[in-house]
């Protein structure tokens, strides 16, 4: 889906000759330069604002899962923190409308959100990581559950549009789970995702869902950067040895079968749950553990997406 926004069929032809630049990315063929057929003036303006933000972010990676509770947010946090620790400028966007858990996992629940003079929302800085979550705007976790579809979509859209990230190397997006309208909206609104990391667990039900998630990405033209099997075996808190407690390897088999990269298996590690509950990033606070090393290895192919110079340089 990379650069998909630059040439869709519904583009107005004036965008193709570069006659109306939006003064952001300077890419002549960027379709945010012209209104799409049937698009209202307001929607067009919103799309331009969103695009002007996304143009300043070199790589956008969505973390998806076929179902909830498989560790998608945990992987999103640790992926973002690992990238930041490797020297990248990273943002973490939590649009998991049903369970925005990133603020809890990073110990920033109830953080005050500031806006700038233009009324844009500024992400919360957590040791250099820029974080924004829908969870900051829900009075309680059940608020979004009762919202109707269009309200959810509107909230996701407005949220994407209103956050001022500045220049980033990576934006990691913790997407709503499943393959329904909500992750669909996220992928479509972002438009030029580098790809998706798909998280699953070894259980059969979860691996069935991972097939759906891979097909979902294919239908949308979003490259699958890889599958991660989480909660794959149990890591002994004393010696770090991993014992298989559920049938594992399903994620790897599906990745091979569907010809997408397999990024690796993360065991159940009580320290991961402990770190989440205490609001601390596991890869940072337990950096010396075997599980943290596994996570860093999983992140390497994602970090390798960014080989060029910083956008700001
Ligand atoms: P999802 O985003 O898919 O709903 P979460 O990332 O919120 O899932 O994880 C659900 C729970 O499982 C959290 O309490 C988290 O700390 C815990 N968890 C996730 N992965 C692991 C793991 N590998 N070992 C131990 N606990 C884990």
Report on this structure.
There is one protein chain. The protein folds into 2 domains: 20-55, no CATH class; 56-303, 3-Layer(aba) Sandwich (Rossmann fold). The longest helix has 17 residues, at 204-220. The protein has 313 residues and is α/β, with parallel strands linked by helices. Helices cover 36% and strands 19% of the residues. It is built from 11 helices and 11 strands. Strands 1, 2, 5, 6, 7, 8, 9, 10 and 11 form a 9-stranded mixed sheet that branches. A two-stranded antiparallel ribbon has the order 3-4. The chain is globular. The two termini are 26 Å apart. Bound molecules: adenosine-5'-diphosphate.
Number of individual domains: 2
CATH architecture of the largest domain: 3-Layer(aba) Sandwich
What's the CATH topology label of the largest domain? Rossmann fold
Give a quick account of the main beta sheet: strands, pairing sense, barrel closure.
9 strands, mixed
Distance between the termini: 26 Å
Shape type: globular
Ligands present: adenosine-5'-diphosphate
Count helical runs: 11
Radius of gyration: 19 Å
Q: Kindly provide the name of the CATH class of the largest domain.
A: Alpha Beta
Strand content: 15-25%
Structural class: alpha/beta
Give the CATH H-level superfamily of the largest domain: P-loop containing nucleotide triphosphate hydrolases
Key phrases:
single chain, 313 residues, alpha/beta, Rossmann fold, 9-stranded mixed beta sheet, 11 strands, 36% helix, globular, binds adenosine-5'-diphosphate
Outline the fold blueprint.
Elements (H helix, E strand, L loop, with lengths): L12 H4 L24 H14 L2 E9 L6 H14 L4 E5 L7 H4 L8 E2 L5 E2 L1 E3 L2 E5 L15 H14 L5 E7 L6 H10 L4 E6 L3 H17 L3 E12 L6 E2 L6 H8 L4 E7 L1 H9 L3 H4 L4 H14 L10
Parallel strand pairs: 1-7, 1-8, 2-6, 2-7, 8-9, 9-11
Antiparallel strand pairs: 3-4, 5-6, 9-10
């Amino acid at each position: 889906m990379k650069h998909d926004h630059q040439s869709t069929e519904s583009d107005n032809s004036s965008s193709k000759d570069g006659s109306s630049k939006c003064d952001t990315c300077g890419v002549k063929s960027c379709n945010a330069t012209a209104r799409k057929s049937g698009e209202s003036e307001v929607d067009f303006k919103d799309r331009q604002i969103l695009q002007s933000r996304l143009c300043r972010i070199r790589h956008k990676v969505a973390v998806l899962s076929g179902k909830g509770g498989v560790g998608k947010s945990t992987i999103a946090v640790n992926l973002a923190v690992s990238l930041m620790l490797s020297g990248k400028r990273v943002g973490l966007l939590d649009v998991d409308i049903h369970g925005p858990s990133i603020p809890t996992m990073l110990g920033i629940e109830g953080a005050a959100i500031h806006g700038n003079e233009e009324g844009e929302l500024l992400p919360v800085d957590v040791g250099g990581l820029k974080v924004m979550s829908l969870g900051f705007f829900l009075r309680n976790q059940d608020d979004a559950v009762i919202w109707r579809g269009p309200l959810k979509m509107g909230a996701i859209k407005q949220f994407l549009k209103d956050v001022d990230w500045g220049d980033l190397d990576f934006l990691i997006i913790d997407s709503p789970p499943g393959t329904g309208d909500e992750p669909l909206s996220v992928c479509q609104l972002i438009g030029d995702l580098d790809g998706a990391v798909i998280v699953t667990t070894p259980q059969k039900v979860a691996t069935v869902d991972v097939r759906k998630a891979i097909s979902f990405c294919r239908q949308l033209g979003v490259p699958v950067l890889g599958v991660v099997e989480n909660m794959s075996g149990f890591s002994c808190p004393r010696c770090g040895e991993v014992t298989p407690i559920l049938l594992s390897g399903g994620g790897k088999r599906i990745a091979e079968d569907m010809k997408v990269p397999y990024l690796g298996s993360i065991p159940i590690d009580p320290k991961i749950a402990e770190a989440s509950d205490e609001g601390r990033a596991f890869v940072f606070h337990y950096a010396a553990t075997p599980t943290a090393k596994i996570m860093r290895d999983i992140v390497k192919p994602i970090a390798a997406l960014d080989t060029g110079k910083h956008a700001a340089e």
